[in-house]
Amino acid sequence: MTNIQELQTGTTTVGILAKDAVILAAEKKATMGYLVDSKVSRKVYALDDHIGLTIAGSVGDALAIVRLLKAQFKLYKLERGPITVKAAATLLSNILQGTKFYPFFNQFILAGYDDNGPQVYGIDLMGGWSVMDKYYSTGSGSPFAYGVLEAEYKEGMGAEEIAALAIKAIKVAIERDIGSGGRGFTVAIIGKDGYRELTDSEIARWAK
Q1: Which of 22, 25, 53, 119 has the smallest number of CB atoms closer than 10 Å to its CB?
Q2: Is 11 assigned a catalytic role?
């Protein structure tokens, strides 16, 4: 019988609050057992102009969730306007809870910016909790990333400082976690001007 461990692909993602934005970041390696399936896989997605999501776990399951949330957010916007970040996190939790007997084998970080400012939510496999905090990390490299975040995160840090911290946390994870790596990083900043992914030159400047 297939278990959760057999379906996990290994990764490191982080979501971190800045003073006036939220940063989502991930490395790009995708694995199938001991095979490196891709060195340039995407693990950070824009769900709307003001909301993003990181994925860890089964890629097929995660992409199904990405497609579903994008569609739901568009329908919501037609009827009521842009969905709030909290409502988006609650919707994802409800979807996961409703499919817990045939679950999506994933860990998600959902983050965004609305009238209540920047927010980041960690959401568990079964949708049992949707908790807002200062930072989250998911995937097999998350214990190493958390070590950096616990030691170096400070409230009130700006978006550039947080982006540099996110990259550092992932780089540390790559050094110790065989499931993390690939060619570069994906880093997104979500603030009052919406969702924006950093260019390679910006990432290179902030990666110390």
Answers
A1: 119
A2: yes
